[in-house]
Amino acid sequence: MNEKYVINIGRQLGSGGKDIGEKLAARLGIGFYDKELINLASEESGLCKELFEKADEKASQSLIGGVFGMRFPFVSEGVMPSLNCLSNDALFKIQSDVIRQLAAEKSCLFVGRCADYILREHPRCANIFISASKEDRIQRLCRMHQIHEDAAEAMLEKADKKRAEYYNYYSFKTWGAAGTYHLCIDSSTLGIDETVEFIEEYVVKKLKLER
Question: InterPro entries attached here (predicted)?
């Protein structure tokens, strides 16, 4: 079967979602996109990368002057707003177009950034949400950032709030809710590598991939 497919991963901070996605994409031999989308959106639009980094997974707000309270249609549906009222909505629209273009060209795995909603009409997709126990998440952040547990806990609470607001705003669904995804899994149960294997087996069966 040569049809292209996409895997979209939502994740709690500290759950290992990025590592799981990267390993899964490597095992399946497909493109992996996380922070890379910021560079691609910057190149596609000609706008500086810092704008996309500032808006990354944040709900709508004005970035460059002006009052900007409405949502924009996607790139394919309308005209880009002028730069004097550029907002997170406008940047989301650019990034959405990049995600659609990549998914049209090849099989991909996307981490975050509402890719499951953006690609909701894609005929072959698997939407996964990865969580982990609070203890495991805190310990992972402490190791990664060399910080104390209190700082790690504050970091994950802030990140969860930001990601939920971003996802809920743009998708009209609920971030992390079982009904939003095809599969929700706690990476604390199996560990990173076995979680990768479990998700791979699920994706292969769901999308009827040839091994």
Answer: P-loop_NTPase
